[in-house]
Amino acid sequence: MAPTKWTTPAQAEFLTGLHPTYLEHTAEKTYHRFWAELYADWFTRWPERVVLFPNVEGALNAVQGEALGAAVDARKKQLQTWFRWRANELRRSRLQQKKSSVFEKIVAPKGSRIRTPTELYMLEHYDDRIKPQITAEQQAGHIPAFGNNLTVVRKYAQELLESEDGEIKEKIQLMYEMQEKVSKATCDTDSEEETDPAEIKRAIDDLPYALARVAKLVKRRTRFAISFVCAGPDPSRNWDISSIS
Fold first, then answer.
1. Which domain of life does the protein's organism represent (predicted)?
2. Less Cβ crowding at N or C end of the chain, within 10 Å?
3. Residues 226 and 185 both lie in one domain
4. Domain limits at 133?
């Protein structure tokens, strides 16, 4: 659900203009620099004191000063929410677009069992979240320090998924819903070769995404690392040969 609109047209224009800069700082993990610059610029343009005490001149008393400090903190959180919600909306949009990948039927063919959200979380985050947690519990002596029993892995996966933030939960839910859609589709492996240049280009663009999922699944199931080299005529290059690896 979109947050309630609280900005004036001028404020909305100001924040929208900074959104690309926010995304750059997000990619570089330099949030602190962005927030500091944003707060300085925002409160210069729209001082919180004017909003809270428009008719008070001179120094504020202790109670007013405390109220102003709380209002400034609340405004900072409101500004952060404004940017984070829109960044998350962009991620949601990209995930939604991936639902229509031309390779989905191959990655999850008809008749395959639909995995639970916990199982999807295990596939996506075993190495970076679940395994470190289990290792820590083993070192602390809370669970046996040999092997990773599937029941134990499932238990910790479910607990970790429940404690994740909204972005991770939403990603897993989208993956789960995508499975349900794909399971209803028919994977026609005997169909004729594609001849539409636009569809071929779309498939080429989707290929790295599909292969990355296959590689992750193979590693999760077998511990094997695999690589791919694909080459062929590319319609976006006047049918010259291009490659992906």
1. Eukaryota
2. N
3. no
4. 101-191
